[in-house]
Amino acid sequence: MTHPTAVREAARVIAIEAARAYVANIRPIDLTNPSVLVGHLMAAETLLMEIVAVHDEPTEAAA
To answer: How far apart are CA 55 and CA 35, in angstroms?
Structure first.
């Protein structure tokens, strides 16, 4: 499914800004707590997958 270019670009900006906001709000991490580390890694992976997904979807011009 193709989306208008403006919609796709907005989705890209939102995904990147969500990742930036997540990183900016990370407090010092307790490196001795594996549960916290796994949680941060899972959140980061999810954000990166969203960024890749919005960049892989075609726009009107690419269709």
So the answer is: 31
CB 2 within 8 A of CB 60: yes
How many whole angstroms separate alpha carbon 12 and alpha carbon 55?
7
| pLDDT tens sequence across 4-31 | 788 888 989 999 999 999 988 988 888 8
pLDDT, tens only, 32-58? 999 999 999 999 999 999 999 888 877
Block residue for tokens 């990147």: 16
Q: Which residues of 6-33 are buried (b: 16+ CB within 10 A; e: fewer)?
A: eebeebbeebeeebeeeeeeeeeeeeee
Can you say whether residue 16 is alpha, beta or left, with left for phi > 0 and alpha for psi between -120 and 50 degrees? alpha
